[in-house]
Amino acid sequence: MFLSRSTNTLDAKGRISVPADFRSVVSAKSQSGVPADADGFDGIIVWPSFDGPYLEGGGIALLRDYQALLENMDPYDDARIAFERAIFAESRRLSFDANGRVSLPKELAEYAQLNGQVTFIGLGRRFEIWSPKNYEALAVNAREMARENRHRLRLVGRPNPPSQGGGL
Amino acid sequence: MFLSRSTNTLDAKGRISVPADFRSVVSAKSQSGVPADADGFDGIIVWPSFDGPYLEGGGIALLRDYQALLENMDPYDDARIAFERAIFAESRRLSFDANGRVSLPKELAEYAQLNGQVTFIGLGRRFEIWSPKNYEALAVNAREMARENRHRLRLVGRPNPPSQGGGL
DNA sequence: TTGTATCCCATAAAAACCCATGCTATCCCC
DNA sequence: GGGGATAGCATGGGTTTTTATGGGATACAA
Questions:
Q1: Which of A16, A39, B60, B96 minimizes the number of CB atoms within 10 Å of its CB?
Q2: pLDDT value of residue A139
Q3: What are the beta bridge partners of residue A120?
Q4: E strands present in A2-116
Q5: Span CA (B25) to C1' (C12), Å
Q6: What DSSP designation does A89 have?
Q7: CATH class, range A5-151
Q8: How far apart are CA A17 and CA A9, in angstroms?
Q9: In chain B, % of residues over pLDDT 70
Q10: CA of A9 and C1' of D1: distance in angstroms?
């Protein structure tokens, strides 16, 4: 699960360290020692958001989830085709180097207006990559809006666990 | 999984470099060192789309998937016969040369209005081959339409797994 | 011959790989 | 609990490998 927020440096070669937390999410090995992902890909997948000047990303498992979702739609549904083109076609496989960095293609960096500093935002199943400046503005609103909508934050599901502390 | 988009050159001899990403998708070897594809074919399979002036393609695994799909239809269903003729009969096996290129038959290049530059579009299980000009227009629409329909892109919550990493 | 298809080689640019260095958090031993 | 050893992380920079592409040589067929 992608959690937390951290800002790293985009160096002159276009490389950036993926937060160690994030790396361990995507490169979780199975017991056999083989990567959990069937195709042995060790890295992240990133594409330009279609909702603003930032990037979205996740592990290959996320892409498979999207694939499953899309494959349940009509093959020639316009929305499906649009999603395929906006996500699959625009995404890039970025694999980790020995130090846990990826090199970010220039056009993605430009799309997200990144130069120098880059902020990773963990959002559970996926994450976002922002220019720190652009993100600042949103972050303040988020807490306010969350407060206004706090009544909708109702957990469902798990029956009461044996005892120990519940809560958020 | 075919991901990303890239534009390569179609040279005077009708050859074109298949993006390295795509090559590694289709020529993934099994642990034994033998090609995963039973028949040892190392290349891609391409046919003219029946939905526009572009080509569709994939690995031999994709063709097998289509075969399985069609074999579940009535043998004399007109649609089945049409699909078989439009896909199987029109497709070409293009094998990689030592540098990862294939040579694209002229009639396919003409069908997709290719000259000089060629764009490969990764779409998960399959890919498409477009004239860059023709695709450009679609790409901008795709992002807009994806944005308009983004509420449909909802990943279902994974059921609570025993313990380790669940969904958001 | 004239194309056409295959194979081989050369090369520039880009990507991947390797090594080194501060810095921080953690561990462990006394 | 202090303090040094240790390990992991983020970062910089050089070097090697891969990739995409052009072009020559060879074999075969129309």
A1: A39
A2: 85
A3: A6, A129
A4: 5-9, 15-17, 43-48, 55-58, 92-95, 101-103
A5: 26
A6: T
A7: alpha beta
A8: 7
A9: 86
A10: 37
